[in-house]
Amino acid sequence: MRLTHLAALLSLMLPALAHADGCAIEKSSFGDPDEAYILKFKEMGTFDPDSNVSLKFTLLVKGTKLALDGEVSIPREVSRTEGRITYQCPKGAEGDALAACTIWEGTMFGADKEGNISVLPPEGGDHAPQLILPGLGRAIRMSAIWGDKKATVAPWDVFAYTACRK
Amino acid sequence: MLFSGTFWRYALAAMLASPAAHAACPQELSIYEDTNGNSLTFTPPQATQAAEHEFTLRIGTAALQGVVMMTKEPERPEAIIMDSCPEGDVTGAELDQCTVWQGVVYGLTKEAKAPFLGKRGTPNADAILLPDVSRLVLDHTFKVALAGPAKVDDVFVMKACQE
Question: How far apart are CA B31 and CA B28, in angstroms?
Answer without folding.
Answer: 9
